[in-house]
UniProtKB/TrEMBL annotation:
Pfam families reported for this sequence: NLPC_P60
Gene Ontology annotations of biological process type: proteolysis
Residue ranges occupied by any NlpC/P60 domain in the UniProt entry: 25-145
InterPro entries, alphabetized: NLP_P60_dom, Papain-like_cys_pep_sf, Peptidase_C40
Keywords: Hydrolase, Protease, Signal, Thiol protease
Designated name of the protein: NlpC/P60 family protein
Amino acid sequence: MPRSARLAVALFAAALLAGCASAPSPLRERVLSNAERLIGTPYVAGGATPKGVDCSGLVQMAYARAGLRVPRSTEEQFRRGRHLDDVQPGDLLFFATEPDRVSHVGIYTGDGQMIHASSGSREVRKVGLGIPYWKSRYIGGVSYIDG
């Protein structure tokens, strides 16, 4: 299945589940809250501090502040996580922004959006996933959160 179709299916399933599911778990809420507090933080390649983060550093910080350990690199975060067909808020979305490799990660917030550290805008942002850029580069979702 093409990447864009996988993202569309995952987001559609997540939207359907959101309509009948309860609110995100307290742990998922903490991850999301931590990520939202980092919106506006400068993008710094290799960064994992409040002064600047890259995409995997953002994930590592948001999860660590919620009491969860995740690997530092995007590739390891993708490889070690529990792979999903249906993502929930707080799960991770992975993209191939460079040819033939997992090279970008964002935290799914629900409603077809994610929080990610953008090298293009040079800061942490919340963005919609419905644009062709993300759809065509989507690789898959993983979770480090039970339930």
